[in-house]
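Input (structure):
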């Protein structure tokens, strides 16, 4: 059952990364500066967006446990409150992207890229609510084990993204070549269209969640409790995503070529991470369903299988990164300096692959039980107390440059994964109960 659920979720996650990979592939063969612009701007956007994604992710235990307990009213309350969160938080994130020049200068990024980065961020801004809405609807479908509409939506999203990228990046049919900014416009358009496609395909499942509209949705006490639950999840994803964004900003100080090489290696590491991320989401759902049904055996089996599959897959991807880094990186660029840096970083990505998989699934298990605070603390300690300070020490005073920053990520993920695995063991030995808001 876990594999049947995790497979489509992982495939959808790979589809999301496929869109980013196409962007990077096309921009990498256009110009090094275009790839650097996309990398810097996406890191700035994700720095804020990660908070919103985490907030929607925090709804997992409410939705999955309500489905397991066959409690449609609790599910409807979670969805309607989630809709408000997605629109308000997504709109706020979009507004934060408008003063892009301020962020670019504060972070000390290459001055020659500022104009393009600012335009890129402003083109991404309208798509922020769409991204959170798609996440909300996808998590509702996952709770019901209805993943086909998600896969189909992502499939068509990839087709649309590829076509729009070719058209807007390189120009044609009365549209001038727009380079990196064309990629940003394509991303925003595709996110909006994917929400519409998903709603159309999944309306029989999603429609009843929004009708009738429940007056209890706006109860202040309940909403504040929801914010506490989802806020911890938001901080967890923000701490992790923000850490990777900060590393991108630190890399940007070494120049456009370094930013481009880092972006290639990070994209490849993110691509493989989509599989354990899918496993983590599926495990969270199975754990939540099991708690809702009062089936402790289902919870324990889901946890064991999820962790085992994550270690197996990420171990294989680690071998690939360690044994053939230059061959893989050469798919993205033929610039010798960019290729050399990307190839030197991929073995380091190989070192943290298994740790990354462990923390993704362990975090999903804890989220399914309703514990969103522990993963947040793990990411705070791993990334911000250990990883980033050590990465700065390695890259600066110890003169390891960009690879030094990646060694900081290795240490961060190692500490975080070990802490979360320990917490899972402790949590699953205790009585488990439903989360209600």
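Output (sequence):
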């Amino acid at each position: 059952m876990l594999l049947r659920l995790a497979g489509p979720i992982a495939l959808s996650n790979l589809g999301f990364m496929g869109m980013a990979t196409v962007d990077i592939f096309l921009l990498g063969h256009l110009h090094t500066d275009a790839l650097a612009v996309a990398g810097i701007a996406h890191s700035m956007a994700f720095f804020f967006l990660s908070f919103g994604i985490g907030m929607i992710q925090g709804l997992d235990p409410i939705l999955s446990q309500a489905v397991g307990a066959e409690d449609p009213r609790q599910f409807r309350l979670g969805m309607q409150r989630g809709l408000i969160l997605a629109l308000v938080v997504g709109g706020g994130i979009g507004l934060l992207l408008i003063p892009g020049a301020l962020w670019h200068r504060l972070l000390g990024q290459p001055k020659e890229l500022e104009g393009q980065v600012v335009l890129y961020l402003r083109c991404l801004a309208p798509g922020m609510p769409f991204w959170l809405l798609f996440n909300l609807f996808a998590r509702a479908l996952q709770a019901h084990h209805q993943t086909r509409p998600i896969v189909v939506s992502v499939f068509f999203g990839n087709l649309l993204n590829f076509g729009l990228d070719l058209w807007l990046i390189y120009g044609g049919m009365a549209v001038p070549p727009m380079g990196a900014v064309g990629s940003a416009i394509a991303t925003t358009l595709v996110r909006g269209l994917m929400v519409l496609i998903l709603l159309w395909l999944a309306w029989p499942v999603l429609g009843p969640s929004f009708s009738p509209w429940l007056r209890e949705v706006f109860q202040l006490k309940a909403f504040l409790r929801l914010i506490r639950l989802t806020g911890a999840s938001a901080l967890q994803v923000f701490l992790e995503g923000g850490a990777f964004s900060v590393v991108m900003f630190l890399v940007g100080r070494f120049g456009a070529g370094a930013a481009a090489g880092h972006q290639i290696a990070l994209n490849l590491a993110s691509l493989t991470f989509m599989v354990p991320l899918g496993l983590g989401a599926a495990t969270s759902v199975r754990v939540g369903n099991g708690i809702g049904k009062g089936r402790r055996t289902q919870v324990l089996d889901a946890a064991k299988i999820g962790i085992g599959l994550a270690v197996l897959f990420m171990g294989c991807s680690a071998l690939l990164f360690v044994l053939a880094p230059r061959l893989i990186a050469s798919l993205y660029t033929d610039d010798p300096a960019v290729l050399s840096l990307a190839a030197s970083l991929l073995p380091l990505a190989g070192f943290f692959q298994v740790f990354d998989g462990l923390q993704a699934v362990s975090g999903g298990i804890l989220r399914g039980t309703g514990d969103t605070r522990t993963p947040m603390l793990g990411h705070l300690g791993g990334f911000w107390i250990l990883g980033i300070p050590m990465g700065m020490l390695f890259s600066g005073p110890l003169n390891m440059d960009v690879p030094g920053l990646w060694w900081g990520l290795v240490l961060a993920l190692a500490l975080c994964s070990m802490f979360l695995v320990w917490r899972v063991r402790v949590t699953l030995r205790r009585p488990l109960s439903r989360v209600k808001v």
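Notes: The chain has one domain: 2-428. The mean pLDDT is 83.
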